[in-house]
Amino acid sequence: MKRVLVSVVMVVGLLGLLGMAARPPLIGGPAPEIVLKDLQGQEIRLSDLRGKIVLLNFWATWCKPCKEEMPAMQAVYDKLRDQGFVVLAVNELEDTERVIEHIRTHGHTFPVVMDRDNRVANRYGVVGLPASFLVDRQGIVREHIFGNLLTEERIADLVRLYGGAGASLHR
């Protein structure tokens, strides 16, 4: 019995060392709840955004591809937020002041929350940046996008596909 217990403890420990990230949410399944503070210290819950199409984007200021895709996210947010689209940018492990300065410098107006202990990123299985998830109006994960730079057209296509036919970049 002692040998079995020691074996179980060793396997669990090894799995912990091999990777902290959990398995990403399954496409077609409910998005795990997020409760994080924004840059003003206000709590934001993913469940409070139910009824909207949410682009959940994990990023950092040091991540060049993250910085390159953020203008596209801002542009689509500006054009489609009245149609129920929101970008929720989850910053990983950085200092709030650095993130505030980055957001201010680049003129981003979408909500930004701080994942100070990387717990949310781990829960979503994020192992590299940028990583995004599209969550539909019912709170279901519809897409997991990683390693590809998001463009205005790609984001609008996803919103149109999962959020309604009326989503268009042209006003």
How are the secondary structure elements laid out?
Elements: H1 2-18, E1 35-38, E2 43-45, E3 53-59, H2 64-80, E4 85-92, H3 96-106, E5 112-115, H4 119-123, E6 131-135, E7 141-146, H5 152-163
Parallel strand pairs: 3-4, 4-5
Antiparallel strand pairs: 1-2, 1-5, 3-6, 6-7
Could you write a compact summary of the structure shown?
The protein has 171 residues and is an alpha/beta fold. The chain has helices at residues 2-18, 64-80, 96-106, 119-123, 152-163, and strands at 35-38, 43-45, 53-59, 85-92, 112-115, 131-135, 141-146.
Write a structural description.
It is a single chain. The protein is α/β, with parallel strands linked by helices and 171 residues long. Helices cover 36% and strands 22% of the residues. The chain has five helices and seven strands. It has helices at 2-18, 64-80, 96-106, 119-123, 152-163, and strands at residues 35-38, 43-45, 53-59, 85-92, 112-115, 131-135, 141-146. The chain has a seven-stranded mixed β-sheet with strand order 2-1-5-4-3-6-7. Strand 3 (53-59), helix 2 (64-80) and strand 4 (85-92) form a beta-alpha-beta unit. The chain starts with a helix and ends in an 8-residue tail after the last helix.
